[in-house]
Specification:
Length: 79
């Protein structure tokens, strides 16, 4: 059986961000960033290639921050 999967052993163990083919200072998309966050740097394609889920997670995080700020502003003087 012949395969073209020929990664050196040291590249398979470490995080994907330290692999030579990933760390070329290229811009990553939102989905890759969230995939790296959720997989602790092990996989950059865990959430797929489409950016919709990454945008949803980013917008949810922004909404939580804005809501928390507004909540603290309006209800800080009730005590």
């Amino acid at each position: 059986m012949r395969t073209d999967f020929d990664f050196p052993r040291k590249d398979l163990i470490g995080p994907v961000v330290f692999r030579p083919n990933f760390n070329n200072f290229e811009t990553i998309n939102v989905n890759q960033a969230w995939s790296l966050f959720f997989s602790a740097g092990q996989d950059d394609k865990k959430l797929g290639e489409q950016a919709e889920l990454g945008n949803f997670l980013t917008n949810t995080l922004i909404a939580i921050g804005v809501t928390g700020t507004l909540w603290a502003t309006f209800f800080s003087n009730l005590g």
